[in-house]
């Protein structure tokens, strides 16, 4: 079998127009800009319009990624969409994106690993491309978490927001990839922690959608250790290190988790991409939102070594190391 690399061809993102600031939230629940910024680093989040669905956000991001790649939708034969907030129970939100783009070939499906969804989706698409089963993939993270927030619970509603981001990956023969592509991915889950961050409704349990519930301190307590474990795995698999990476693009959940993880790994703060202040925790969408920002402002360039990581409900966690 030919050795194939999944090479990044484009990245794009989308945030809904409506921004909700910390000051706006202080009108809804007993909180303050000072408390939110100090504990999380978040300053504002974006909220989808009533008629705006997860697939609409995803479509905007996908089109932006295709434009960045200089590709047409017809070039794509695989869509992997990570979301915990799908348009409907079924069909997959990915098929709405596929139809919206006018694609009628290949496969499109959703993947659910909560905040780790984008890293799981990159790993999944990478496996398919490497196997030769598909040639060009749209890997999307898209969420409307505003729809599953309990807006009377100040311990959760201040943390999350809506958004979408997408990456175009192309399977390229390794000898033609010039060292670029997804170098390694490492995925983990441990369902013993499933009740520490969950939604209290669902199709087969309550026949309702439910609201997000979280033991914030417990999540925080586990996050840094889990994140650093899968990053050490990525370094060991490739011989790369905190010194050789160019950019650390973590899941944007919380500034304190990001800073503590980078410090524990010895990653210099100027290599860390942080956008959580602008959009809060957008779950599976947060990494491609951060990637799109750092690519658009000229930080992430072709040939750079980019480290992704995420941790979230389940618990699930994972890392991906990419030569951009
Ligand atoms: N505004 C003001 N006060 C608040 C708010 C708020 N929005 N929320 C909680 N408080 C109060 C609490 O009621 C408590 O008051 P008390 O001392 O009178 O009882 C006080 O603040 C401290 O509460 P804690 O929960 O102990 O606050 P903590 O310092 O742990 O910060 C936080 C809470 C920010 C949620 C933190 O635990 C955290 O970051 N956890 C990680 C959660 C996370 O990022 N989850 C995202 C999903 S998972 C992932 O993506 C990695």
From TrEMBL:
Residues 252-256 are annotated as: ACP-binding. It holds the Pfam family ACP_syn_III_C. Gene3D superfamilies: 3.40.47.10. Residues 236-324 form the Beta-ketoacyl-[acyl-carrier-protein] synthase III C-terminal domain. It catalyses: malonyl-[ACP] + acetyl-CoA + H(+) = 3-oxobutanoyl-[ACP] + CO2 + CoA. GO terms for molecular function: beta-ketoacyl-acyl-carrier-protein synthase III activity. InterPro entries: ACP_syn_III_C (IPR013747), ACP_syn_III_N (IPR013751), FabH (IPR004655), Thiolase-like (IPR016039). It is found in: Cytoplasm. Keywords: Acyltransferase, Cytoplasm, Fatty acid biosynthesis, Fatty acid metabolism, Lipid biosynthesis, Lipid metabolism, Multifunctional enzyme, Transferase. The last Arg residue of the ACP-binding site is essential for the weak association between ACP/AcpP and FabH. Homodimer. Catalyzes the condensation reaction of fatty acid synthesis by the addition to an acyl acceptor of two carbons from malonyl-ACP. Catalyzes the first condensation reaction which initiates fatty acid synthesis and may therefore play a role in governing the total rate of fatty acid production. Possesses both acetoacetyl-ACP synthase and acetyl transacylase activities. Its substrate specificity determines the biosynthesis of branched-chain and/or straight-chain of fatty acids. PANTHER family: 3-OXOACYL-[ACYL-CARRIER-PROTEIN] SYNTHASE, BETA-KETOACYL-[ACYL-CARRIER-PROTEIN] SYNTHASE III, CHLOROPLASTIC. This is Beta-ketoacyl-[acyl-carrier-protein] synthase III. It comes from Ancylobacter amanitiformis. The lineage of its organism: Bacteria, Pseudomonadati, Pseudomonadota, Alphaproteobacteria, Hyphomicrobiales. The gene is fabH.
């Amino acid at each position: 079998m030919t050795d194939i690399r999944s090479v990044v061809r484009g990245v794009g993102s989308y945030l809904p127009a409506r921004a909700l600031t910390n000051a706006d939230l202080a009108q809804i629940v007993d909180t303050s800009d000072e408390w939110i910024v100090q504990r999380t680093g978040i300053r504002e989040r974006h909220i989808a319009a009533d008629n705006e669905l997860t697939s609409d956000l995803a479509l905007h991001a996908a089109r932006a990624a295709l434009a960045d790649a200089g590709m047409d939708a017809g070039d794509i034969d695989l869509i992997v969409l990570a979301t915990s907030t799908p348009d409907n129970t079924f069909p997959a939100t990915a098929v709405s994106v596929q139809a919206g783009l006018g694609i009628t070939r290949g496969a499109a499906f959703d993947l659910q690993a909560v905040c780790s969804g984008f890293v799981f989706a990159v790993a999944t698409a990478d496996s398919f491309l490497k196997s030769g089963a598909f040639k060009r993939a749209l890997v999307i993270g898209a969420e409307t978490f505003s729809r599953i927030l309990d807006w009377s619970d100040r311990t959760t509603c201040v943390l999350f927001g809506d958004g979408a981001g997408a990456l175009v990956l192309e399977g390229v023969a390794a000898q033609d990839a010039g060292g670029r592509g997804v170098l390694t991915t490492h995925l983990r889950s441990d369902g013993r922690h499933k009740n520490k961050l969950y939604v209290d409704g669902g199709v087969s349990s309550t026949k309702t959608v439910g609201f997000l519930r979280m033991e914030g301190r417990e999540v925080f307590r586990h996050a840094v250790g889990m994140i650093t474990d899968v990053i050490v795995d990525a370094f060991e698999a490739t011989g790369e290190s905190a010194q050789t990476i160019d950019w650390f693009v973590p899941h944007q959940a919380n500034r304190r988790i990001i800073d503590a993880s980078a410090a524990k790994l010895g990653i210099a703060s100027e290599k860390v991409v942080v956008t959580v202040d602008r959009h809060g925790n957008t779950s599976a969408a947060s990494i491609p939102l951060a990637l799109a920002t750092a690519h658009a402002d000229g930080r992430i360039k072709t040939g750079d070594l980019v480290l992704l990581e995420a941790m979230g409900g389940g618990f699930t966690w994972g890392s991906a190391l990419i030569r951009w």
